[in-house]
Specification:
alpha/beta; Rossmann fold; eight-stranded mixed β-sheet; 10 helices; 8 strands; 23% strand
């Protein structure tokens, strides 16, 4: 698995969007027992924190020590620095395994072997993610310019799985049909900039060119945003669930 987020771990914890309660309710409705859950590539622990409200014990793993330093804390959450493809867990102990906005970075074959080894026979696996946000027509045009025209070649190849809605990832499970969910939130302009700064391609660009590419679109983005203090933000949720 790649580590594209250690350098901006604090910003990631602050600016990344959070999943809606309806998504967790749906996943919980599929599970008989709520003892152990594993959140793979847990990052800032936002999913682990929510799951901790419902499960006896939550295990969050990540290869980024920096991310885990910024991760949400709870008495029943244990964080481990290790790759999802090679975990230290015993066989068949998890009622639920989740991976949020990260499966596209994994070595699929090795990871799925770990999922099948550690998941209980009736356990549930959920690959969760979100696509590019929608704000309004004017702002979306400028964000697309940044995403495609400026950062296009700086996105890792794995980004295609997000763009394809996770429909093209291997999924060797008995798949369960899922409702459509979206993340809905409101941001001010500074929150938008904060979020854009967490993009992995933006970090790659900065490293290569010693310049933040947001500078090229900042004025245009500000004009498109206009005088609104806050704007509604919508992220489409990507979801594959199986057992």
């Amino acid at each position: 698995m790649k580590d594209n987020f250690s350098t901006q771990a604090a910003e990631y914890a602050q600016f990344r969007p959070t999943y809606p309660p309806e998504l967790y309710d749906f996943l919980l409705s599929l599970i008989k027992e709520k003892n152990n859950v594993w959140d793979c590539a847990t990052g800032n622990g936002q999913v682990a924190r929510e799951l901790a409200k419902h499960f006896k014990q939550v295990f969050g793993t990540d290869i980024s020590e920096n991310q885990l330093k910024n991760a949400a804390k709870a008495e029943n959450i244990s964080y481990l620095i290790e790759p999802s493809e090679r975990s230290s867990f015993a066989n068949h102990i998890f009622d639920l395994i989740t991976v949020a906005q990260a499966i596209h970075w994994f070595q699929f074959d090795a990871f799925y072997l770990e999922v099948k080894r550690t998941l209980k026979p009736e356990g549930i696996f959920a690959a969760i993610g979100y696509g590019i946000m929608q704000i309004d027509q004017k702002v979306d045009v400028v964000i697309h310019k940044l995403y495609e025209d400026i950062l296009g070649k700086y996105w890792d190849e794995e980004r295609k799985y997000i763009e394809e809605g996770y429909q093209t990832i291997p999924f060797p499970f008995e798949e369960i049909a899922t409702p459509h969910f979206s993340i809905k939130t409101t941001w001010n302009f500074d929150q938008l900039i904060g979020y854009l700064n967490t993009w992995s391609a933006l970090q790659h660009y900065k490293k290569a060119n010693d310049k933040n590419p947001i500078e090229f679109v900042f004025t245009e983005l500000k004009e498109a945003w206009g005088d609104d203090a806050l704007k509604d933000i919508t992220f489409p949720i990507l979801l594959r669930v199986g057992r």
